[in-house]
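Model it.
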Amino acid sequence: MIEDSDFGVRTSDFGLDRRVEMYQWQRDGRGGYQQVWKPALVSSSNFSEGHANPSSFPLEGRIWWATEVSVDGKPLDASVIKTLGQWQDFRPSFTRLPANLAATFQPEGDGLGSALNPLDPRIGDLRIHWRTLHLPPLADKIELRGGKWQLVTPASSIAIQTAPVPVAPSTDDAQPAPRGPMLRMRTVILGGLFLLALLLVQRARRRPRKT
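Modeled.
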């Protein structure tokens, strides 16, 4: 169980994220100012009169991580949670909200807000939301190393080598040359025909011509 003890917010998931925004002035890029929700302090030291922001954040955001998580009785390394975890919005019940904070904050959407009128916040008002961390199926993503479940490393994954698929020759392709005994037989036949033709030519040359 993880808990944001300031607000009594609890979860049995793998992480809890408290996100705090404050309503502040910022330049609008056209020489003027606008009021916006920002998760970090906007310095107004160079702003014109009437556009001052608070000098500090009265409440900071924070993340809590689950500890002593195990799979099949073996501990799960924190890097698995932080790398594979997926954040999702979370709406607490606020049944454990301390009395002093209940006097300052009221439910607003899925979180809490300090504005008396959420539709008309004032500079310095806060709004707070929480997210919880969920883990996807871990099959093929973790391996047991040194007695602890850790992220699968590229070196430990097996690359499947596929053999090249032979391509059948087209009917328009030339026939392959014969091999082995067939090649030797064709060579002998061609050689014999060549010698026979040569002898016939020589005999024809030797015959006397009739006058």
